[in-house]
Amino acid sequence: MKNHVIIIAEAGVNHNGNYDMAVKMVHEAKAAGADYVKFQTAVPELVISSIAPKAEYQKETTGAGESQLDMCRAIHLPLSDYAPLKQECDKAGIGFMSTPFDLVSIDTLEPLGMDYYKIPSGEITNLPYLRKIASKGRPVIMSTGMCEMDEIDAAIGVLEAGGMSREDIILLHCNTQYPTPFADVNLRAMREMADRFGVRVGYSDHTVGIEVPIAAVAMGAVVIEKHFTLDRNLPGPDHKASLEPGELARMVAAIRNIEDALGDGHKHVTVSEEPNKEVARKSIVAATDIKKGDLLTEQNITVKRPGNGISPMLWDSVIGTRAVDDFPRDTLIRL
User: Fold this and answer.
1) Sheet with 140-143: strands ordered across
2) Range of the domain at 335
3) Does the predicted TM-score (pTM) go above 0.85?
4) Residue 92 pLDDT
5) Fewer CB atoms inside 10 A, N or C side of the chain?
6) Contact, 210 vs 251, CB < 8 A?
């Protein structure tokens, strides 16, 4: 579809490890109009060491008493839940995606036939992971939070070495702070990535509200990813920086409006404005009563609406000619 932005409703781990809640999120994402609902698949023990600290935002949202590993154990679904979740998405008529965070999770998701693999920002420097993703031969959407340009370049190089084409890689500009301060969004970096790497670009948003992803679409994003939750007051690390279902629906509706507004990129008169040309433009008219044969001068003609007569751009051609008829004041001049 022309200008169709892929909207990913990021459920992530906002189901808090509850399968029924995850299913409800599938249906809320569908009702909001998203193209995909995306989860996060991980075997926590393969992703996080026992000594890994929580991020500061995780300490603020879930407390500092438990380790990052214990927190993730509590909020991740077992690997066996993802196949039935995919079936729920199929029944609901929404695309299924899940981000794998380890090699076992990649193999778990592969039989489900996802349209894209989503590479999270934290794995963009994980060489074995990138090689395994590339080996699957599926298109990739890769977030670039916490990245310098040379790190992105290196990750693309790994994917290409694994047989991938840049046509099958979409980079998401991203800031990995929850929530992201507006001053740190730096949306213009999205265009820098597109120009330097010759790939399609999008935006993964962690700001509060919906205006930044809408602005990203206006700047050319082909994918928007945004966290959502059933209730921002639920316990867990990501709920506070997520949209509730009604807000997600408003974001989707606004993005679809921007898609329409972007148009085809060529300046031309549109069908809707064509009738207004006659109303808003002007013609050469009689400024005073003019008799047939009178010389047309700057004193007896002027420019007024409507615009269905001689264009004022022909003013110089009209000045100095003779009136071909009587022209009462305010009537259109004819040659």
Assistant:
1) 95-100, 36-41, 6-12, 223-227, 200-205, 169-174, 140-143, 117-119
2) 269-335
3) yes
4) 98
5) N
6) yes
